[in-house]
Design a protein that fits this description.
34% helix; rod-shaped
């Protein structure tokens, strides 16, 4: 009986492969899809200048 041509994969190798896959997916998603939790500050009210003589 012949041995199969498969080589055992270490757990470290599997971890690196899965980490690379997760990183690739994270970088491939558009930045616009990320939710913005911080609301934009409203502009401060400006004082109107009185041009009367």
């Amino acid at each position: 009986m012949e041995k199969p041509d498969r080589r055992p994969i270490s757990l470290t190798g599997l971890g690196l492969i899965s980490a690379g896959a997760v990183l690739g997916l994270a970088l491939s998603t558009p930045a616009a899809a990320a939710p913005t939790d911080t609301p934009q500050p409203k502009p401060a009210p400006m004082a109107e200048k009185d041009d009367r003589p």
